[in-house]
Specification:
About 65% of the residues lie in helices and about 0% in strands. It has about 140 residues and is mainly alpha-helical.
């Protein structure tokens, strides 16, 4: 799945959640806001920061479940801040002109599903990013269990 399509799917999840602050927001605006918080300066998915935050904050089991087949473990608002950082949450909220709590909830609702979608195909985005032949996802999943 292409990154742009993945971000649009994530934006659609946010737009259709049960928070009045995000319901009805422009999908393109949400997509742009997501892009700004999960991409690095080179325009690639900022895996280094996310993986580093996982190991420092004990979130490996949660994200490992998103990468593996089966049910996704839930993440809460405090953990989403640990994963992405307060500055990115604030940037996301400001981009969408919503409050911080709504921004956290939007990311809690969408991020597990977006990661799951990115890694569920035979040739996942992770494999494409690291040039693997299907083994990168398996290795990453084992790292977080």
């Amino acid at each position: 799945m292409e990154l742009e399509n993945l971000l649009r799917d994530g934006a659609a999840l946010i737009e259709s959640n049960d928070d009045d602050a995000t319901t009805g927001l422009n999908i393109d605006k949400i997509t742009k806001a997501l892009n700004e918080i999960i991409m690095n300066k080179d325009g690639s998915l900022d895996l280094a920061t996310i993986v580093g935050n996982l190991s420092r904050n004990g979130l490996g089991d949660i994200v490992g479940s998103w990468l593996a087949a089966g049910n996704n473990l839930e993440i809460n608002k405090d953990q989403i801040v640990d994963l992405l950082g307060e500055d990115k949450i604030t940037k996301f909220a400001n981009s969408l002109e919503i409050n911080i709590e709504s921004a956290k909830q939007a990311l809690v609702d969408s991020l597990p599903k977006v990661v799951d979608m990115a890694t569920s195909e035979e040739h996942s985005m992770i494999d494409q990013m690291v040039g693997g032949g299907g083994h990168a996802l398996e290795t990453l999943s084992k790292m977080f269990r």
